[in-house]
Amino acid sequence: MPYIEKIALEKARKINSTPSIYGTFAEIGAGQEVVNHFFKAGQASKTVAKSMSAYDMTFSDQIYGRVGRYVSESRLFKMLDHEYKLLQKRLKKKRGHNTKFFAFANTVAVSTANKLNTSYHHGWMGIRFQSDYNTPYNEMILHINLLDKTRLQQYEMLGVLGVNLIHSAFYTKKDHKNIIKSLFNNFESSRVDIDVLRCSGKIFKKLNHHELNLELIRQQSTEALLFHSKKGGNILPADALYEKNIIIQQHSNKKLDSHIRKQTLSYIKKIKKIKTTPISIMNIPIQYMKTNTIPYYLKKYLLTSNTTKHQYILISNFMKLYELKKFIRKATDQYIFIILRTDTLKQLFNKSSEDMLSFFSQLCDQKTILIVPDSNKLKLSPKYHHLEKYLIHTKQIIHLK
Asked: Is the pLDDT of residue 186 over 60?
């Protein structure tokens, strides 16, 4: 038996041997991989009140109500609402005095065949649970990206992560380091990416949610977190950026000129004839956040009278522009405009010839454009002029005037 399966079964066995923990499982899209661990562990009747999987859309809509997308946060909440209310309605009077109820749910898209597949495999997973008898519920909600290549590997990973989530809800100290550690316990974090993690309820009252999410990046459990001042916590990049045109500014210690953004918007509307307002992202590599906090950057860049619904900050591990571009490309094939200062562009050209060619080949394409607002100061070595002229000729570098 693989090590991760063995540890997952031990955790499920521990929960099964605790009579006060009792609840339901609702899993859509990737089998019933989580509850299966509880059945395999033995004595599942002490934990599992009900297990179900409504695969057919008509059946699912009849049970949980209609939604726009089946693999979505709204679908997950409908599942948790329905199952938890039903559990309370049927069992609270009978055993509420000595039982901590829970409802676990997930809705996931995985590979359709046991072969190499590069599609977007992701899902929402959550647990609604009581920390004591007859108390209000708490919640832990995750959005996950499954990074394994085959369907069976993804199924395995989903099952283990689900067991870890349930075990964490009942047995882990509610601080950011222990929560992250418990979720990724007994498997490599390279197998799954968690880009949304939300905890709510009385038991999490003292939890620093910004630190909780930053810990995901510090532990390299996710690539980046997207924040918006009017959306509360971090939000799913795939939803906010889907098929949008994007403007990116890289954070630096120098003050950013809002006039540059206005120039860029003017160019986009006039030359590219893009009518809808692009999403603006300030990328802040986590290396810059040693002294400051997420609320500091939210206040600095977003919590102002000039902030619009199109402005976000991205906290990431991306120090290289082509890594950032690759991340954004997962959500959109529209234009990406990257605003660069002259000194930053000059640094890019100062790489060795081989490194420079590799860098620009990964960064530039017909819909990824470098915007240089103060281009008159740019003085490159003559050996780089041919590349600069080519990028200008192909309109992958635009000098704003």
From this structure: yes
pLDDT band for position 343 (cuts 50, 70, 90): confident
Residue range 198-205: average pLDDT?
95
pTM score, two decimals? 0.86
Q: Please name every residue paired with 32 in a beta bridge, in sequence order, or none if there are none.
A: 30
Q: Which residues of 33-64 are buried (b: 16+ CB within 10 A; e: fewer)?
A: bbbbbbbebeebeebbbebbbbeeeeebeeeb
The C-alpha torsion from 364 through 367 and 372 to 373, rounded to 10°, is -170
Which of 65-69, 126-130, 140-144, 253-257 shows the lowest mean pLDDT across its residues? Answer: 253-257
Which residue segments constitute the domains of the chain, with CATH numbers given? 3-222 (3.90.950.20), 239-399 (3.40.50.620)
The answer, yes or no, to whether residue 140 has pLDDT greater than 70, is yes
| pLDDT reading at 305 higher than 50 | no
46 is written with which tokens? 């002490």
